[in-house]
Amino acid sequence: MLHTAHMTLLQWLSPAFPTGAFAYSHGLEAEIATGRVLDAADVEAWVGNVLRFGAGWQDAVLVAHALDDDPAALDDLARALAPCAERLQEGLEQGTALARMVAGITGRALPPRMLPVAVGEAAAALDLPKPDVCAVYLQGVATNLVTIAIRHVPLGQTEGQAVLARLAPLIHDLASRAATAPLDAIGGCALAGDLAAFRHETQGTRIFRT
């Protein structure tokens, strides 16, 4: 059953919530510019790998732990995991915006954190199951990246939504595993995504900030 707490979390992680997520491509802009991501199959593979092996998995584990662990220590870890300066900026600016907005709505004192830690710390008050929080977070990550691909690959709306539908089982599986994963399971390897983020930092013409 969908409860008010679920609706609140969906609001916080929706594209309409003013975190500035639309301004960040997570390196995808560089992959599109170099011709490595050209169609729906490429987008599905790229986003799927980010979720499985990159920031998706790492962030989901951080979200799960931030629901009941020390958020300050987790924020230090989240910053250390950022592979480059602009990805650090992406996580911190979105997390700061989310914390500021949730604090303004709820009256809670929420300091600026990296995005996954900010989400976990804010969502702790909702008392939702960890897999649910992780799944909504990962869905938000995937949705933002696919929306960028719809506009700039470009993909049709139907193709983009079909990619998201095919990623749903992966998101469910990752969220379920992240909810019970120890912190030392946080490692990953998404070199293509990290290298794309590095290339984006020096890309001549850019639409997105990462």
Please give a structural write-up.
By secondary structure, this protein is mostly helical. It has a single domain, classed as Urease accessory protein UreF (Orthogonal Bundle). It is 66% helix and 0% strand. It has helices at residues 4-12, 28-33, 40-53, 55-66, 71-81, 85-106, 115-123, 130-152, 157-178, 191-201. It is globular. The model has no long low-confidence stretch (mean pLDDT 93).
- What's the N-to-C terminus distance? 37 Å
Query: Count of helical segments?
Result: 10
The tally of domains stands at: 1
Could you say what the CATH architecture is? Answer: Orthogonal Bundle
Helix content: 55-70%
Specify the oligomeric state: single chain
Question: Per CATH, what is the topology?
Answer: Urease accessory protein UreF
Q: H/E order of the elements?
A: HHHHHHHHHH
Main beta-sheet annotation:
none
The CATH superfamily name is Urease accessory protein UreF
Q: Which geometry do the CA atoms define? A: globular
Strand % is under 5%
Rg over C-alpha atoms, rounded to the nearest angstrom: 16 Å
Which class in CATH terms? Mainly Alpha
Content-based structural category: mainly alpha
Q: How many E-type strands?
A: 0
Query: What are the low-pLDDT stretches, counting only 5+ consecutive residues below 50?
Result: none
